[in-house]
Amino acid sequence: MKKQLIFAFILCYATHLGMAQKINADQIKEQIASYKKDIRGPYQEIRWFCTDGSTRAPKDPCPKNIGPGIQHATYKPTIVQLGKQHHIYLGQILAYTAQEEFWDAENNHSRLKQYQLNQYLRSVDNGWILQKGQYYRGAIQSEDEEAWGVNFYKWLFSNNKNLKENFYLIRQSLKDIPHRGDDNVAQLIRSDSKVISDMAPDFMSIRIKIHGQPEASDIEKVKDFKRTNGHKLSSAIQAKIDILLENMIGFYKPVDIASLQQKTSLVKEAEIGKTIQTYISNNKDQKEPSFLVPATAELLLAIRKAILTQENPAAQLQLLDTSLKLEEIIFKNSPLWKPETLNDLLTKICYLGMANAGAGYIELAEWEQLNLSTISSSQKTATLEDLTAILENARREVEWSSSMVKANYQEVVDLYAEFEPLANGFIDDKIRGSIALHLGKAVGDLGDIIAQESALTNKVLNIPNQSGIRGLNPGYALGELVVVSGSPDNIEVASNKIYVFQRPPADLKPIAGIATVSEGNMVSHVQLLARNLGIPNTALADDNLLNLQTFHGERVFYAVSNKGNVIMKLEKDMTQEEKNLFAKKERKEEKIQVPTQNIELSNTKILNLRSVDAADSGKLCGPKAANLGQLKKMFPDKVVEGLVIPFGIFRAHMDQAMPGQKITYWQFLNQMFKEAEGMHSKGIPEMEIENYQLRQLETLREAIKKMPLQPQFITQLESDFKNVLGKDIGNIPVFLRSDTNMEDLKDFTGAGLNLTIFNVISKEKIISGIKDVWASPYTERSFKWRQKYLLNPENVFPSILVIPSVDVDYSGVLITKGISSGNDKDLTIAFSRGAGGAVDGQAAETYLIKDTGEIQLLAPARDMYHNRLPATGGTEKKSSTFENFILNPKNIQDIKAFATTIRQTLPKETHSDYEGAYDVELGFQNNKLWLFQIRPFVENKKALTSDYLESITPKIDINKRIPLSKKI
């Protein structure tokens, strides 16, 4: 059994780690096609399943002496095989499934999520794999499924930890797992409207309305469509419309508020029961949405807080079901609440935000950080600054809600999308069925008012709802627009194109511009490179991405101002000033020279980290080792011991003869650059030259990986491991960090371009890892970045920092500047759970700590997995939950104190005239702070000082007062 669990655990991470057996998508597509045509669908035969574990034929029920038993189908062998080989479960019969296996905690609840996704696919594709199998009598018994559902939730709630850690997922599952006879009618309405629009394209405008701004008046629109188009609609389409109308009429009937009393009978004596009774008494006849929505929102939040105080699982189930009914009330009534004034709109945003938290789309701790009610009831006016603060917080809640949905379901959607593209609509459907949809609409209305009052207006082609777009990095670009709605990881990017992604890829090659729905975090390597190089970078909403797909393939001008307003227009619409930005000119002066005048290649001895400091950067080693050595002197108890393999050792090895060549590795490298220079002089196209260089670099890279290491180097490495790190090589896990002289230059950061090897322990892997790190500057991604921005890319030398692994509980980045505020006295902090946090683009917990002492949560963590570093080497992926913040108050105070010390003492200790901000990588283990890296925080001064960008940046009077009685 244990081996099976481990096997399933590994398979679960197939898409996340790329380790397990690759699924054959075409084969699964063929299987699905066959199930659709089969009158039994994915099922083999009907059987009785008796209490004693025996099975019997359909006409041979279980005898009374062994219990009643239940009847349902068995799975086809191919279905069983999918589960065993790939952890893919199609057509799950709940009564056929053990509760613990269905909860599937070892695999991040994959089976439960797959059940929900299967239900969605059935609704949008006429039964999906059950197109004919849904009529297979006896395959699934609804009463058995409902009874199983009730028992499952009672079993699940017997441990309060499940509800505490997975409130959102469990509450969403109640919409799909039968347990009381109700259906997820709102989801059926959306799926039916999609099916009808696919059959009758003229229905598309109504479908868009139902999906984007659903309300009861949509019923008349559907009726009008049928009346107007009935003569040309087939009987099948008319039947679908009738079903849609029936569901819509049923859904938009007022919820019987009085009936909630009977549905919460098990908590009537508890405090929450009394709160529910008061709500019923005050609102059972209430019709006015502006009164009903706030009262319902308050109760929804109260129920969420009260659920964990209940000890009876049946009572918890009642409260959750009531919570869903209350969400339904808010979902139906929100569109009917028509604010007349700015104050009314602010009130609506506040209560929709509260309801959204009560429904689980953000965590309670996150809601407590959002202050959506900063305007006092006695105020007559509000400043533009105050209104903008409310807008930013409300906008954050909408983004956090979407990221909660994606964090929970993206992995299973990605898995299914390989063989069923319809799966890609599941997350969008979840978001559109949430209170966040209506909150987003209200936030957009507030954004439009503030944009009008401040003149901070986006002008992004002609797409709607632009108030959700916000610039992250200033810059401008001209190029083809490429909109990528799926995973970005396998997209081959080009340096002259502008990309719109759902999320930023982890290893981004040079591009002209970027916009993302999920920005990751503002201190990831991708974001720092974009900021450093003046690449315009924007965060936008899901709808914005969908609307931009219309312009996919068009050449566009794209600019982000210093204040974050965004311009995007077709090339033909550019002004002469904008065209002049891209006039042909010699770019050589814009490139950066890698300094080599001070480099010392004669030093071929491994260095103790304690013996290097900031003065050795670019001379003996790169800035990582030099600066960490400096920190070791300044903060000896916060920095591990370490070894530094200097430039000279790399260069000595590169002087060896290269196998299969008549020259050394170093000569081969320089000969390649010389040949490329000759090709330039002959007018050979740039792409052809680049392809030649990449082919040569691949040859060099593979040769370096097989390079023999000099015996004297191995001997010293073994000796220093024992003398400096305290254990023999092979007995202590270490990090091998590439540390080149191309990093942390005055105008180029190079963050994340070269290799870091995590937690390697065996001697063989350490030896191999050293060569892999030496080879990493010659990868395509690293080469393209430095080729584009460096004048002498051939003079890149890697050193290596070798440090013992620290299995931190959480780790991240500190920037001694407010990136979002622009204030040099503020701090920006981003942390993720486990090792390697924030730098690789995880959806990190991010704070702005103002110099006034105010701490503002900019984003919560939303990564479902994190790295742990076992003492046996390698990495382990652990699943995460979001109910608690990563950083505690003491951690934040420690970071603030450390930042103050860095600002005050580092320039003095290093005798530096550097006055800018610092970028620090750090982590906590048992609340002890560990330092791993410090570097200058490099920004693109050209973008920040561009006359054009300044010209499109509006001058905003943040003290401007706006009447709250302003009509909207």
Helix-strand blueprint:
Blueprint (H helix, E strand, L loop, with lengths): L1 H11 L1 H4 L7 H13 L5 E7 L5 E2 L13 E6 L1 H10 L12 H5 L6 H15 L17 H16 L2 H6 L1 H7 L11 H15 L4 H9 L5 H12 L5 H17 L8 H4 L7 H13 L5 H19 L5 H21 L8 H17 L5 H6 L11 E3 H34 L7 H8 L2 H20 L4 E2 L9 E4 L1 E10 L12 E5 L11 E4 L8 H9 L3 E3 L2 H7 L6 E6 L5 E5 L5 H5 L26 E2 L14 H12 L8 E3 L1 H8 L10 H17 L4 H20 L5 H15 L8 E7 L15 E5 L2 H13 L4 H10 L8 E7 L5 E6 L11 E7 L11 E5 L5 E5 L5 E4 L7 E4 L9 H22 L7 E8 L2 E9 L4 H5 L1 H5 L9 E3 L5
Parallel strand pairs: 5-12, 7-8, 8-9, 9-10
Antiparallel strand pairs: 1-2, 1-3, 4-26, 6-10, 7-11, 11-12, 13-14, 14-17, 15-16, 15-17, 18-19, 18-24, 19-20, 20-21, 22-23, 24-25
Helix pairs in contact: 6-20, 7-17, 10-11, 10-13, 12-13, 15-16, 16-17, 16-18, 18-20, 18-22, 20-21, 20-22, 28-29, 29-31
